[in-house]
Design a protein that fits this description.
Order of helices and strands: EEEHEEHHHHEHEHEEH
Distance between the termini: 56 Å
Strand content: 15-25%
GO molecular function: ATP binding; ATP hydrolysis activity
CATH superfamily of one domain: P-loop containing nucleotide triphosphate hydrolases
Helix content: 25-40%
CATH topology of one domain: Rossmann fold
Protein name: ABC transporter
Keywords: ATP-binding, Nucleotide-binding, Transport
InterPro entries: AAA+_ATPase, ABC_transporter-like_ATP-bd, ABC_transporter-like_CS, ABC_transporter_ATP-bind, P-loop_NTPase
Pfam family, one: ABC_tran
Shape: globular
Number of helices: 8
Oligomer: single chain
CATH architecture of one domain: 3-Layer(aba) Sandwich
Number of strands: 9
């Protein structure tokens, strides 16, 4: 088996925008989407809010190629290249393999692709685990970790994939408040320049991390216009503008 050569983690990855046009998808005879248009700007964080069951996770799965759309749906990369192989997906569940150590769970994608697990690759996995606060738990099995720790392993595994497009489905929801704030900052730093779509139920999280924030609602679902907070993410959680924006978003969601 040939070794797979991948770009260095330090090499810049060109931003890749994503375009969803005329999306249609039905479930049990009901339309989740019907004629949905949506775009992710390359190199920016887009945050998606909305009530449970409206279709946020389904949209992530559609972009990731995990849900089969119906004609005339088009999901394309705006640079004309394929989406396949350029998307990393972090689900709500950590999906760790219980028989693998923390370190091996972060390396599992590389192993499945048949890549040579070199010292450099292992070193990068160790570095990511250190950044998410688990540098001292490299050999621990998932059963030995708390729910928040398992989610941090899943975040490191997602970062390990080093893809230009990153889809995240409530990745920080299982964490305590302080750890959540710290990992939001770490993710914002580590994913600078990537195209990120973050699904969250937390308006403050969206306001901290999003360049663009959208609300999804209705059946079939529609996506509202972008709300674009000022300043680069991650924004301070106690900034008066964020707290005011949180109130506005809560009113919008309640309506």
């Amino acid at each position: 088996m040939h070794d797979i050569v991948r770009p260095s983690a330090s090499a810049p990855i060109p931003p890749v925008g994503v375009s969803i046009r005329r999306a249609r998808l039905t479930f049990d005879g009901a339309a989740v989407f019907d004629g949905l248009d949506f775009s992710l700007q390359g190199g920016r964080w887009t945050c998606l809010l909305g009530p449970s069951g409206v279709g946020k996770t389904t949209l992530l799965r559609l972009i990731a190629g995990l849900a089969a759309p119906e004609p005339p749906t088009e999901v394309t990369a705006e640079d004309g290249g394929p989406l396949a192989g350029r998307v990393a997906y972090m689900a709500q569940q950590d999906l760790l393999l219980p028989w693998l150590s923390t370190l091996d769970n972060v390396l599992v994608g590389s192993r499945l692709r048949g890549e040579k697990i070199s010292p450099a690759l292992t070193g990068r996995a160790r570095d990511l685990l250190d950044k998410v606060g688990l540098g001292d738990r490299l050999r621990a099995k998932p059963a030995e970790l708390s729910g928040g720790m398992r989610q941090r392993v899943a975040l490191a595994r997602t970062l390990m994939e080093d893809r230009p497009i990153v889809l995240m489905d409530e990745p920080f929801s299982a964490l305590d408040a302080i750890t959540r704030l710290r990992l939001q900052e770490e993710a914002a730093r580590l994913l600078t320049g990537r195209t990120v779509l973050l699904v969250t139920h937390d308006p403050l999280e969206a306001l901290r991390l999003g360049h663009d924030i959208h609300v999804m609602a209705g059946q079939p679902a529609v996506i509202g216009p972008a709300i674009s907070p000022s300043g680069p993410p991650p924004r301070p959680p106690d900034a008066p503008a964020l707290l005011a924006g949180q109130a506005d978003l809560l009113r919008l969601l309640a309506s």
